[in-house]
Structures are given as C-alpha cells and as structure tokens.
Design a protein that fits this description.
The chain has seven helices and 22 strands. A six-stranded antiparallel barrel has the order 3-4-5-10-7-6. It has a four-stranded antiparallel β-sheet with strand order 2-11-13-12. It has three domains: about 35-170, no CATH class; about 180-260, Alpha-Beta Plaits (2-Layer Sandwich), CATH 3.30.70; about 265-305 and about 325-375, no CATH class. Helix 1 (about 1-20) packs antiparallel against helix 6. A hairpin with an 8-residue loop joins strand 4 and strand 5 (about 105-110). By secondary structure, it is α+β, with helices and mostly antiparallel strands. It has helices at about 1-20, 25, 60-70, 195-210, 245-255, 340-345, 350-365; strands at about 20-25, 30, 35-45, 85-95, 105-110, 120-130, 135-140, 145-150, 155-160, 165-170, 185-190, 225-230, 235, 255-260, 265-270, 275, 280-300, 300-305, 315, 320-335, 370, 370-375. The basal body constitutes a major portion of the flagellar organelle and consists of four rings (L,P,S, and M) mounted on a central rod. It is found in: Bacterial flagellum basal body. Its main location: other. This is Flagellar P-ring protein.
C-alpha cells in the first residue's frame, strides 16, 4: 500500500510538472480591483425562546426600543421580557464594481447571550463601509446549520447555532467609489510573490502586446515595454490606448505563464502533515532512525503466612522491565529532486512524525537546501 501511494504521488507530481503553465488570472489580481468589507448592527426576531436576555444584553433592549419608537410604538419605562429577539452583527463583502440593485451574501453572528438563531428573521439592517457610508441593506430569513438540544441532565451541540448566513440577503444601494476606467495604469499583483514569476509575467505580456498588431496597435516600443516587473510582487502594465480596459484584462488574464516557487518544506506538527515543494533538495547525508522503548510493569503480589504460624500478610513488589529497540539502521539519503527524496524517505519506512523529526535534524545539520516552515 505504501508503494502504491508513493507511485500515485509521483504520477501526480509528474502531471503537475508537465502542465506547469498557468493562466495569469489564476496566480494574480489587479491592484484596485478588490472587495470592500461592510458591517452592520441589526436585530433578529422570531426565535423560539432562544434569544437574548435583556438583563445580560441591555443593548438588545435599547435597540428594540429605538426600533419601536421609529415605528410609533412607545415602550419607554415599560419592562420588556421578550426572549425571541437577538442582537447580531452583520458582515458582507461588496464585490468590485457592484452597482445598485446587485444582491450579495451576508453573514450574521450573535452579539448577546442568545443560544440559537435557528428560525429567526433579520430585520432591515444598513451595512456601512469604513467611511461610514451605507452601501447595502440586509434583510431576510436566516439559514443556520448548527443546532443545540438540552435536557435536565445532558445537552448536545452540533456546529455553531449562533452564526448564520443569508444567501443574496443584502441589496446594494450604492456602488463603491472608483471605476476601472479611472486607473491610469494596471498593476498585476502576484498571489505568491517571486522574482522569477514576476519576470515571466512581464515577458508574456510584452510578447503578446509589445509588437505591432492590426487589431490592437502597438502599445510599447523598444525603449518602453508594455509590462515591467517592479518587484517580486507586482508587475506594472501600460494602459492600452486602443483597447477597452475590460477586454485588455480578459486577454491578459488568459496568457499562460510558467510559475516558480521557492524551495520550502511545510510541517504541521498537530496533524503530522508534511508538504515538500518541488524544488526541495537535500545534500548527501547519513540518517539513522529508530526508537528505544523501555516498559516497566509493576505487578505486586500478596504473601500469605502459613496457618497457625503467627505471621503477617505482606505485599511483595514484583517489577518487570522490558527493553525494545526498533530500527536504528543507517541510511544515506540524497535528494537531487522531489522524486528521489520521496522515494528515499518511503524506502526507510518512516511515519509522518518520524519524517518531521528527521527533516528538523537535517535542517540543523545544514543539509536541507530549503526553507523549513513549522506550523
């Protein structure tokens, strides 16, 4: 089974290497084309006795009284004991260039001591941006995936019943400032910064748009390339004079680029997961791996005296010590590429926890030619 898994892993890695070219749109984003975060405070009604208690959540009572005052119902000075209302925080992401009338998803989370939002309905809630302006209005029936049930002696909770979601629950009232036509030039930002990848992205754009074409004209020249890598993260691209910006970005995003990545090994000690990058190499090093187990078992015995001997019953200690040692053999590991490294580690029959310890020791010895990231 181990050999089969190793073979499947190597086949997958070979397939990735064979088709390493990736579209620019899949590895980058355009600077200025991003989501905007919205936040609001609202009330959820219709809960079956699982809402906030006004004693522990006075802000819920204040919000409810303010809402009733706006509706012409005066409750000032009257005690409120409703348990079907909960104060919630509403969050959403406003997509770039979303116009008025667009619907977006929202997330709802309880702010008080409500035990569940199941069956509740969110009342109309303005969603504001960091500038204090209202960009969307949320309202609708909550979709809660978690639940809780309790009896006199036991209770059970599945998921998070105090958090919910409303698909298409908010209506955009105002578009975020800024349009695509307002950008003087385009800046392509890489999701995984790397100097080699940034240079290849610039070369691909220049190869496509840097020469004369009867469709789009010539954007750049010998002294002024269309794209230029500014650093390991961003590539500056001239705005085309004869192409609509949206069409230009659509063509640019489909250009294939072969990405590069630094040699890196990521280790998650909690789950025992080890992810080894394609460019990881190990210098020739001798590795011994084994475990020494010492087991001590106490089995006390009771010693009874002979009849009529006037003796005493005593407890006699009995100790059993066993020593077991596994592995301990010496192996030479050299990994000029990922395939050889994986084969060498699998040949030694190491478990994930053992591989983590070996990689840390190899890194300390200076033989691991990669960055070791331990989470």
């Amino acid at each position: 089974m181990k050999r089969l898994l190793a073979a499947l892993l190597l086949m997958a890695l070979s397939a990735v290497d064979a088709g390493a070219a990736t579209r620019i749109k899949d590895i980058s984003s355009i600077q200025g084309v991003r989501d905007n975060q919205l936040l609001g405070y609202g009330l959820v009604i219709g809960l079956q006795g699982t809402g906030d208690t006004f004693r522990n959540s006075p802000f819920t009572e204040q919000a409810m009284q303010s809402m009733l005052d706006r509706m012409g119902v005066s409750t000032r000075g009257l005690p409120l004991r409703a348990r079907n209302v909960a104060a919630v925080a509403v969050t959403a992401n406003l997509p770039p260039f979303a116009g008025a009338g667009t619907r977006i998803d929202i997330n709802v989370a309880s702010m008080g001591d409500a035990t569940s939002l199941k069956g509740g309905t969110l009342l109309i809630t303005p969603l504001n941006g960091p500038d204090g302006q209202t960009y969307a209005v949320a309202q609708g029936q909550l979709a809660v995936t978690g639940y809780t049930a309790a009896g006199e002696a036991d209770s059970i909770t599945q998921g998070v019943p105090t958090a919910a979601r409303i698909p298409n629950g908010a209506l955009v009232e105002r578009a975020a400032p800024g349009q695509l036509s307002d950008l003087p030039n385009f800046v392509v930002e890489l999701n995984n910064p790397d100097f080699a990848t940034a240079a290849r992205v610039a070369d691909a754009i220049n190869a496509r748009f840097g020469k004369a074409s009867f469709d789009y004209g010539k954007l750049g020249g010998p002294d002024r390339p269309v794209a230029m890598a500014r650093d390991l993260r961003s590539v500056s691209v001239l705005r085309p004079p004869n192409i609509p910006p949206a069409r230009f970005l659509a063509i640019l995003g489909d250009l294939p680029v072969e990405t590069d990545s630094p040699a890196r090994v990521v280790v998650d000690q909690r789950s025992g997961t080890v992810v080894i990058g394609r460019n990881v190499k190990i210098s020739t090093v001798a590795v011994t791996q084994g475990t020494l187990t010492v087991r001590v078992t106490e089995t006390p015995e009771v010693s009874q005296p002979a009849p009529f001997s006037d003796g005493q019953t005593v407890v006699v200690p009995r100790t059993d010590v066993q020593v077991q040692q596994e592995g301990g053999y010496l192996a030479v590991v050299k990994g000029p590429d990922l395939e050889t490294l994986v084969q060498g580690l699998n040949r030694m029959g190491m478990r994930p926890t053992d591989i983590i310890s070996v990689l840390q020791a190899i890194k300390t010895a200076g033989a691991l030619q990669a960055e070791l990231v331990i989470q």
